[in-house]
Write a structure and sequence with these properties.
The protein has 251 residues and is mainly alpha-helical. Helices cover 73% and strands 10% of the residues. It contains seven helices and three strands. The protein has a three-stranded mixed beta sheet, with no helix packed on it. Helix 2 packs antiparallel against helix 7, helix 3 runs parallel beside helix 5 and helix 4 runs antiparallel to helix 5. It is globular and about 75 Å long. Bound molecules: retinal (RET). The site of retinal has 20 residues, from helix 3, helix 4, helix 5, helix 6 and helix 7.
């Protein structure tokens, strides 16, 4: 008989906590947007949209929408007995990928505008980002073929390296022409982002990928990362940006 792997109480509670945190930070970001001069408002609007999408996606997952089951076969091998194949159905929270496909490009836009990245560089980073998220989605739904699954993962990691290159090399080169405060701030917040973002494919590898950790552990791990990558990133960006006189988005 098939086995079903799904969230428990910890997962449910965690999802609701994030719903509330994303809602509260969205309201704060919209509030902050009204209080800054319109020339400074682009960062606020982008950041408020990021947590709004996250709020909607977490609301979906908390009420049980945006979730499907993907099956895989687990083969049990023992000496002297024939192998036994178990079909396992594990929950896939695909609402995440809908969220990420919109919000990670917006996060990159925040960083790109801070650094003053060119249009071409911004587009390359955003297209690589969309490829990265969609490969993760295809890999998560891989129909039991491990080679295909890790193939998708490999394409996603290559796309991620393109993003790292644009932020670390491209961003550093363009921000070098700006004032020292912006330069230092970009170094810190882009560094924070790259460290954080690198943990996502690791979590994916042990949850959707290799099915090592439970669905609850997966929900908690992504929740912690999402709170750091969206509300914490957002407050840090907006408070710092508000206190800087010279930095405004370069569009
Ligand atoms: C996947 C799997 C394929 C390979 C790579 C991935 C990277 C995902 C990242 C996600 C970042 C999400 C953020 C969400 C904000 O709340 C898709 C897991 C490289 C970097 C920042």
């Amino acid at each position: 008989p098939p086995t079903f792997i799904h969230k428990g109480d910890t997962g449910s509670r965690t999802l609701w906590v994030v719903v509330v945190l994303m809602a509260v930070s969205s309201l704060a970001f919209y509030g902050m947007a009204f209080r800054v001069p319109v020339q400074k408002r682009l960062f606020h609007i982008i950041t408020a949209f990021i947590t709004t999408f996250a709020f909607l996606s977490y609301f979906a997952m908390a009420v049980g929408d945006g979730i499907s089951y993907a099956s895989y076969t687990h083969t049990e091998s023992h000496k002297h007995v024939p192998d036994v194949d178990h079909v396992i159905y594990r929950q896939i929270y695909w609402a995440r990928y809908v969220d990420w496909s919109v919000t990670t490009p917006l996060l990159l836009l925040d960083l790109a505008l801070l650094a003053g990245l060119s249009g071409a560089n911004i587009l390359v980073a955003i297209v690589a980002d969309i490829i990265m998220i969609l490969t993760g989605l295809f890999g998560a739904f891989g129909q039991g073929n491990d080679n295909a699954k890790w193939g998708w993962y490999a394409w996603g990691c290559i796309a991620y390296l393109v993003i790292v290159y644009q932020l670390a090399i491209g961003g550093r080169d363009t921000v070098a022409k700006k004032d020292s405060k912006t330069k230092a701030f970009y170094g810190s917040i882009a560094g924070f982002t790259l460290i954080l973002w690198t943990i996502y494919p690791i979590i994916w590898g042990v949850s959707e990928g290799a099915h090592i950790i439970s669905v609850d552990a997966e929900i908690v791990a992504y929740a912690v990362l999402d709170i750091l990558a969206k509300p914490v990133f957002g407050f840090w960006l907006l408070f710092t940006h508000d206190s800087m006189s010279s930095t405004s988005p370069s569009v």
